[in-house]
Design brief:
Distance between the termini: 95 Å
Radius of gyration: 59 Å
CATH architecture of the largest domain: Orthogonal Bundle
Structural class: mainly alpha
Number of helices: 6
Largest sheet: none
CATH topology of the largest domain: Helix Hairpins
Shape: rod-shaped
CATH class of the largest domain: Mainly Alpha
Order of helices and strands: HHHHHH
Amino acid sequence: MGLWARLTRVFRASTGAALDKIENPELVLQQTIRDMRDRVPELNNSVAQVMATERLLIKNHENLEKQVVDLDSKIKASVKMGRDDIATAYIGQLQQAQLDKERTGAQLEHAALASKQALKARDNYVLNMKKRTAEAMQLISASKQAKLQEQLAQTMETFNIGDDASTFNEMREKIDRRVAAAEAKLQLGTSSVDNQMADIEREAMDIQLQDKLLEYKQQMGLLGAGSGNAAGKQIGAGSGAADNDEQVLEDVIVKETNEAAN
């Protein structure tokens, strides 16, 4: 194989590959449909011209038939009048009209056949165009569906593999760590010694207020003797409870201090 033939083959192969890449099947099919539809008016014009020729020959044939009848009448009238010369002239015209009529009749038969063939060809083309158009629309729909599926496949690939998936996992781990740290701090804050001490102090304050209220009632004579003794016992009990609370508070502080030291 010569060098020029090889270069030609390479050029054709490269050109064909480039055309395959830039060629859009949907656009090609749509243009094909437009081209087929644009040819219908041209076919109609051609069929109309053939049919016009047929109609013109029909009219000429009818005129020649009238002319033959008219000449025949004139010949008979000339013979009756004894004008053989005029009759002879009319006979020549009659013979020419009959020849023209026969020739026109033959042409009319060919024109009629041509009109039928033209109409049939036009109808066949229209039917074929409708069939091809339906097929093209189906192919265009299939091409669009394939394109959509390709886009969906590419989108799903970005979620399954690649940097996006690792980024989502990394961000999820960071957020989980922050949530766990916040929950631990909250739990630590609610169970600290300061909170426990605050609860104990509130309880002690309530006990002191109740004792003070009973003392005021006793001084104002609002409590009876039995109530007074009960109040005294309650006050004593309250004092003992306060002492116990103070002892518990001291024990808790000592325990937390020892744990912190260890």
